């Protein structure tokens, strides 16, 4: 709820603070004292149109700051966080300023924010009903949502089922749209994938084959050099059998080992060297044997070399198209086969989706018809209830009805357009609310609607300006009684000039001008019981100390207290 509003430089208000309370708060004061500027300030605070002519003459700008308590886990807190703002112990600070040149700025939770964000938040925070304000409930989508809540569980169950079917229907339609409109592109994709898979399958590559072929090609291309090198190394180790003089490494090493073996027992250090020479001898003997075997195995094979080079050329061609290595080519082929299976199964999928779409369409039509029936029944009850309220609010000939227009297209909430209509007198045709009522009448109509919708429409704060315009006597008492009834479920702030309405308040603020014609902080006073009696007396008789006026004021306060159950 709103806890406090500070207004600076707006109209006749220089600098004033309004401390607000739960329940019904009324704002009164003499004509021209600035009561309406309170509503204007609240309108600015929640994204209303900025009018630089409202800036107080001599002031650079008008500033309105509001302090609200909001649930930390609620939708408002979530939207504030999305805008970059923060709550301070469940308290939200909103500021709106308008310069004399017409520039407008807003801050939300300590961060600058577009004014449109304030208007967006207003839908969940406040309903301002002033004679020049855009009314929240004048918007058809809000009227539909409020009527749905008014209809209660009978509609909510059907609407929940409809919402699930509607979302699935949109998903199915989107999938069908994609499959049918992109058929050519998908066919081309399938052809390319099919060609690639077939080309790779024909080549029958083996994982790691490209690396193995490269090694084999290198070995075959250098077969003569490899054989000569192995033979030369072997002869260096073991000697050339055809040579008259042997000068091989193995023979020389054997001579060294024999020389050391004869004396090794005389010195352990020399024995260790002899052991190392023994190890070297074993290694050299093995190496010589392997070199001989290798030299015999290496053969120049031009036919095999040509086959390897041809195979490598084929794999290289595949690598240029599908992957850097044979393993990458095989991975591409696996993925392509999966995607190809999806594409080739589109026809079956299209048939299945079309069948599901038809089933969902029939389901939606059935649920939409049920929604229309429930809304129609609720609309009749709602229209009768509001009309009854208007009779008590000095509009005995007015009739409120709800027009439900059923279209052919499914929407998120069914096929119905909902619009509340007003016929101010029997001979007048029913018209939309903003066309069928004058300013004062519209405020009373909106009060009647809010009273009927109370509990169904979850907005926590209502603001009414001149809701009692053009009425008096018993009708004024009924207005006060209904505002008090609405205040049992929400915070209600009312600017009024009627004592019959003010008597029902839980909190009473009076706005007074100072000697220079401005409203300052000291000019907004919260009245106690005695102060309320004097103010009501002034509103009744124009004289604060009139005994007759005070007696009448006391009577009004007593009646209102009894009605509220105080």
UniProtKB/TrEMBL annotation:
Keyword annotations: ATP-binding, DNA damage, DNA repair, Nucleotide-binding
Top-level taxon of the source organism: Bacteria
Molecular function in Gene Ontology: ATP binding
Residues in RecF/RecN/SMC N-terminal domain copies: 2-518
Pfam families with a match to the protein in the record: SMC_N
A biological process from GO: SOS response
Claim: DNA repair is one of the keywords in the record: yes
Similarity-based family: Belongs to the RecN family.
Main function: May be involved in recombinational repair of damaged DNA.
Name of the molecule in the record: DNA repair protein RecN
Source organism per UniProt: Streptomonospora nanhaiensis
């Amino acid at each position: 709820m709103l806890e406090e509003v500070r207004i600076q430089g707006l109209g006749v208000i220089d600098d004033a603070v309004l401390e607000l309370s739960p329940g019904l708060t009324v704002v009164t004061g003499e004509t021209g004292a600035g009561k309406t500027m309170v509503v204007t300030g609240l309108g600015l605070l929640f994204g209303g149109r900025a009018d630089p002519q409202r800036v107080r003459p001599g002031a650079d700008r008008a500033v309105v700051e509001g302090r609200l308590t909001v649930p930390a886990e609620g939708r408002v807190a979530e939207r504030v966080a999305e805008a970059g703002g923060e709550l301070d112990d469940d308290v939200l600070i909103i500021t709106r300023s308008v310069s004399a040149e017409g520039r407008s700025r807003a801050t939300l939770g300590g961060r600058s924010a577009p004014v449109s964000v304030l208007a967006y938040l207003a839908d969940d925070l406040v309903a301002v009903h002033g004679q020049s304000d855009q009314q929240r409930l004048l918007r058809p989508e809000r009227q539909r949502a409020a009527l749905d809540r008014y209809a209660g569980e009978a509609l909510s169950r059907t609407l929940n089922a409809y919402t699930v079917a509607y979302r699935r229907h949109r998903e199915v339609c989107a999938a069908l749209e994609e499959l049918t409109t992109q058929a050519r592109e998908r066919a081309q994709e399938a052809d390319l994938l099919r060609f690639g898979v077939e080309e790779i399958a024909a080549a029958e590559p083996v994982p790691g084959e490209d690396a193995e072929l490269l090694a084999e090609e290198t070995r075959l291309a250098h077969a003569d050099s490899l054989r000569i090198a192995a033979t030369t190394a072997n002869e260096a180790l073991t000697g050339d059998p055809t040579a008259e003089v042997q000068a091989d490494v193995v023979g020389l090493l054997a001579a060294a080992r024999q020389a050391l073996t004869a004396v090794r027992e005389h010195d352990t250090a020399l024995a260790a060297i002899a052991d190392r020479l023994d190890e070297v001898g074993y290694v050299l003997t093995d190496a010589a044997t392997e070199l001989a075997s290798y030299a015999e195995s290496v053969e120049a094979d031009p036919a095999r070399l040509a086959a390897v080079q041809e195979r490598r050329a084929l794999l290289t061609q595949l690598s240029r198209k599908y992957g850097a290595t044979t393993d990458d080519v095989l991975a591409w082929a696996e993925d392509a086969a999966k995607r190809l299976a999806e594409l080739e199964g589109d026809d079956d999928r299209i048939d299945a989706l079309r069948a599901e779409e038809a089933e969902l369409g029939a389901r939606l039509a059935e649920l939409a018809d049920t929604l229309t029936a429930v809304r129609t029944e609720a609309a009749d009850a709602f229209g009768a209830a509001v009309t009854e309220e208007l009779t008590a609010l000095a509009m005995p000939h007015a009739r409120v009805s709800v027009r439900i227009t059923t279209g052919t297209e499914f929407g998120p909430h069914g096929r119905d357009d909902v619009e509340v209509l007003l016929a101010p007198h029997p001979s007048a045709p029913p018209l939309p609310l903003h066309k069928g009522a004058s300013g004062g009448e519209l405020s009373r109509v909106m009060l009647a609607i809010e009273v009927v919708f109370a509990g169904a429409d979850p907005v926590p704060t209502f603001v009414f300006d001149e809701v009692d315009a053009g009425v008096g006597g018993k009708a004024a008492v009924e207005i006060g009684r209904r505002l008090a009834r609405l205040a049992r479920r929400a915070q209600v702030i009312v600017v009024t000039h009627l004592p019959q309405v003010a008597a029902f308040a839980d909190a009473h603020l009076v706005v007074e001008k100072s000697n220079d014609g401005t409203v300052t902080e000291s000019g907004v006073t919260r009245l106690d019981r005695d102060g309320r009696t004097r103010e009501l007396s002034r509103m009744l008789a124009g004289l604060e100390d009139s005994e007759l006026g005070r007696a009448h004021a006391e009577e009004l306060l007593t009646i209102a207290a009894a009605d509220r159950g105080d």
